[in-house]
Amino acid sequence: MIVFAALIVSCSQTNTNMEQPFGIVIHGGAGTILKKNMTPAMEKEYTDKLAEALNAGYSILEKGGSALDAVEAAVVILEDSPLFNAGKGAVFTHDGKNELDASIMDGKTLKAGAVAGVHTIRNPICGARVVMEKSEHVMMVGKGAEQFAAKMGCAIVDTSYFFTQKRWEQLQEAIRVETIPLDHTDTTSFIYPEGSSDKKYGTVGAVALDKQGNLAAATSTGGMTNKKFGRVGDSPIIGSGTYASNGTCAVSCTGHGEYFIRNVVAYDVSAQMRYGRKSLSEAADFVINQTLQKQDGRGGLIAIDSNANVAMPFNTEGMYRGVRTSRGLSEVKIYENGEKGS
To answer: Which of 94, 121, 219, 296 has the highest local Cβ count within 10 Å?
Structure first.
């Protein structure tokens, strides 16, 4: 009995001294991202910006900050970069406008916020967060969302802020060939012909686990080039493009939004963990490489669970992605085979 008691004390002390792991995962879109189509300079631009966003979020976590603050900080950096289809780099609609969507979710409380079809909120993820924290609602759209975001202190800009020449030329070519590409192009062309598999799926996102054991997820996008009639994809839809629950995981998706909405992809990863008792990697892989693959749904997701296990599956040729955890995992990747680039 004395030995048994000593063992209990020893185990108790060990558990007390164990620190909660933490970490962050980010993405900048998935699709046909081939090394042969990327110059070394462009590779460096992408990897440097991904690393900047990753490190900004990780720094917050390392100092004891919240997962919510970490994912918002990471997404803001990606929204401010013209490299990605969100915020400053957003694509144009058929009418020559930028329509922005974003969402955020707190895994501790299951509270969530989203904005859709906004034109003047500099960082749509800020709009999503104030909807979550300063209103009784989950989603606001259009002018109402912009008015609320302005009232709550989010930066409001003229629509000209979002203009980039590359995106404008991409729209003109899309109109000329009457197609709707799903994301930013590579350095070799502005557009891909209808029916081509050489597409990329816009969106940026982040998921994080903090030192308090709380999870959070955030996603932001500019949608589809040449989209019409106020189309909204999965990014601002809680459960489809974004989901977080402390009991399972945090997820942010990127891909052909209609498929992600129909399959409630972000929530399905969590549900398979909760009800199917799958691990994070098993659940994420099943959803992307079986559920979506069978329907020809293209894209990927990033996820992290309460033990800082991470998953980054995609069924395209590449996905801009990065991860950094307190367990020493730190990497930024682009291509399918895991190559960082040059």
So the answer is: 219
d(CA 263, CA 33): 25
What does each C-alpha distance from 341 to 38, 45, 184 come to in angstroms?
A: 9, 11, 19
Catalytically active residues are 203
pLDDT (tens digit per residue) in 42-71? 999 999 999 999 999 999 999 999 999 999
Tokens in use for 66?
């919240």
Tokens, residue 226: 């040449």
Q: Is residue 12 part of a domain?
A: no
Secondary structure (DSSP) of 262-297: HTTHHHHHHHHHHTT---HHHHHHHIIIIIIHHTT-
Domain with residue 96: its CATH number is 3.60.20.30
Q: CB–CB of 257/281 below 8 Å?
A: no
Residue 10: inside a domain, yes or no?
no
Cβ distance 90 to 52 under 8 Å?
no
Whether 342 is in a domain gets the answer no
Give, rounded to a whole angstrom, the gap between the first and last alpha carbons of the chain. 61
Q: What is the largest CA-CA distance in the chain?
A: 83
Number of structural domains found in the chain = 1
Residue in the structure block whose two tokens are 């899309």: 174
Which residues have C-beta within 8 Å of that of residue 162, sequence separation ≥ 6? 87, 88, 90, 98, 100, 119
Q: Which tokens hold the place of 21?
A: 């792991």
Asked if residue 166 lies in contact with residue 176, where contact means CB atoms within 8 angstroms, the answer is no
One-letter amino acid for residue 115 of the chain: V
pTM above 0.85, yes or no: yes
Residue 340's alpha-carbon distances to 246, 317, 318, 333, in angstroms, are 31, 13, 11, 4
**Is 3 a member of any domain?**
no
Phi-psi region of 274 (alpha: psi -120 to 50; beta: other; left: phi over 0): alpha
pLDDT in tens, 247-273: 999 999 999 999 999 999 999 999 999
How many helices (H) does the chain have, and how many strands (E)?
Answer: 10, 13
